[in-house]
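Give me the fold.
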Amino acid sequence: RAARVWNLGNHDARYETFLANRVPEYAGVKGISLADSFPGWEKAWSCFVNDDVVVKHRFKGGLYAPANNALWGWRSMFTGHLHSAKVIPVSDYNGTRFGCDTGCIADPFGPQFLEYMEDSPRNWVSAFAVLTFHKGVLLWPELVVAIDATHVQFRGAVIRV
């Protein structure tokens, strides 16, 4: 019964735009839209978990985007555009909020990225974020980080997956 929200990203938009520009006569045909692959999911640019937490694909750019997202968004913000897996707290008179880049679920050096990245080095980390709330307040976000194909690190432990 949980809400299913699919935050659109630049690659999702690229897929739709590519098809629309090259085969406009297929507009409206079931299976052409990427959304057809996600029945039951609500498409959105942002998902507000509560008044203090926003999940979206990207907001600010650059190396310090997670910090700038929290700073300029005035909320804890979770994005995945950088694929870098980091949590940066931003504290001021209003308290502490978090900017988090959630990483990349895929293997950053997997074959699907070879041509796209032109076999260049990348600052990507295979990871995802876990958010825990206590009495409606977001606790410090935690990252689950892949060590190899069968192990992740979480809360200081190595877990076989």
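Residues 10-22 form the longest helix (13 residues).
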